[in-house]
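We modelled the chain as a single entity of 447 amino acids. Its sequence is:
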Amino acid sequence: MTRIITDWYWPLDGWIIAIGILCAASAALLGSFLVLRRLSLLGDSISHAILPGLALAFMWTASRSGWPVFAGAIVAGLLTALASQWLQQRGRVDEGAALGVVFTTLFAIGLILINYGAARVDLDPGCVLYGAIEFAPLDRLSIAGWEMPRAFVVQLIVLVLNTSFVLVLHKELKIATFAPEYAESQGIPVPWLHRGLMVLVAITAVASFESVGSILVVAMLVVPPATALLFVNRLKSLLIASMLLGAVGAIAGHLAAISLPKWFGLRSASTAGMMAVAVGGLFVLVCLVSPRCGLLAAGYRGLSLRLKIAFEDVLACLYRRSERGARSPAKLEEICNRLGRSPFLVQLAIWRYRRLGLLVHSQDGWRLTESGFERAEELVRSHRLWETYLAENLAMPAERLHEAAESLEHFTAQPLRSRLAEEISATEDPHGTPIPPERGTPRKPQD
């Protein structure tokens, strides 16, 4: 961290981060709707397919700024959206294939035009792909006596434009995104909303490509919203979280571009590239630690479920043992043999249930307490109700009943047990074993 601070130069690095944050926020704001509509590839396509429009505008005006540039980008962006829709409807190809055909063709044409006019225009394919955010603070404008980078002003205008679009049409965008058929029935102009979104994506791309390049624009359009969807489930939260994640990625990416190359003996690294890597790293991190659908949380839930099933099998085993008339306490080895479980897992279940007051140690063995007996009886009742229901209503073969009921008994609460009991007429399961009564007088294990 000390090395980073000594290498930090606020007049340059501060503006670089500010430009990156504005670019990330404006792209993530629109990208949220693209991701929700399953049109992530369309944002990628537009950010690449605007290249022919940009190249023609550059060759015409010999400048990388001005209204012709934006007009060329908008036309190319709309052409991408309309051409892909036409191919999908008329050419009988899926959406992904249509987008792939259109954007690769237009992108290739743009690269040819750039190479053709590179001698007359200060532009090259590397500038389009990687940008030059490191030098963006050097190109300054004077506004009301304040000097600031032109890229910062442009990105700020784009962010205000995108934010205004989302705020003014928030309700319409929300309905059109989640229920397009209902939106059309209510008179909402869904096609025009779609075209307006595509125009703004094109404007965002052309405003960003010179300073940050198309790679970062594509990353910010898709990765922050995709990351936010891993831990939020409301549109407003998604928009805010996407913008914040993009901003964090921009800051972390620039810090990494300053410090990491020196750790590996390299001279420099692309700031825009490192920003894209940073938002990708955030996605991986959230994939691991997200409490809603992260890999660690999913693994924990899966482990908890497996332990719950294994632990409850111990209770059911002790109940069935008492049904067979066993009077002595059950020893650890006997329980392990009957369940086919490891001694460690059975001991873990015993330790837990002893703490909960469901098991008690007696004469070098274990027996159910009254509350433990009641809990075990509920499990066995659920198991036998399911066996009976599956046999009577689904005609399931007898050899498959136990396995099916075994997987269902652990998720059957009292209301469902009552419904199952209403659906069957037998008092015994298909194997001839009595079904324990629901909430009757507890049958305590004999001493």
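As a brief sanity check on the tokenised model: The radius of gyration is 32 Å. Residues 1-6, 441-447 have pLDDT under 50 and may be disordered.
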